[in-house]
Amino acid sequence: MTSQEPRHLWEGLPDEAGKEIGPEGEPVGRDPRTMTTDELRALGHKPMTPTKAIRAHCLDCCGGSAKEVRWCVAADCPAWPFRMGVSPYRAKRTLTEAQRERLALSKKSSLSARAARDGSSEGCPGTPARLPQIDRSEPDASAD
């Protein structure tokens, strides 16, 4: 081996930080439990819940199509029940009236704060004031 050749087959590749030398000298994936969050981010991994990671894997498996994930018939796949990004085994959350009121107040104050920060008079961040407004009024009946 000359000094010009890489020491390992994967050396110099972007995901090199995710590999280490195995017991027989072959490349193996590093244990992510021993890696720092900076190392994981450098490999392109974003922090996410396990359920969201399963959803991302299913999207990858289905060519990026959410529709194909929804229509997936691989019911024997361990990820299949979680493919929609939620756990079907988790009990649905039922809010009390007091919790609903607190949530509504919190959301309202959050939207108001965002509008004030952005300088927008609109409260909804999904429809900023800079977007053209659609006229949804009834058409003039006399124009017929």
Shape: extended
Q: Sheet bearing the most strands, described? A: 2 strands, antiparallel
Class from secondary-structure proportions: mainly alpha
Secondary-structure element series: EEHHHH
Uncertain spans: none
Structure commentary:
The protein has 144 residues and is mainly α. Among the domains are: 10-47, no CATH class; 50-82, no CATH class. The chain is built from 4 helices and 2 strands; from the N terminus they run ββαααα. The protein has helices at 37-42, 50-61, 66-71, 97-118, and strands at residues 19-21, 27-29. The chain has a two-stranded antiparallel sheet with strand order 1-2. Strand 1 and strand 2 form a beta hairpin. The longest helix is centred in the C-terminal third of the chain and has 22 residues, at 97-118. It starts with 18 loop residues before the first strand and ends in a 26-residue tail after the last helix. 5% of the residues are buried.
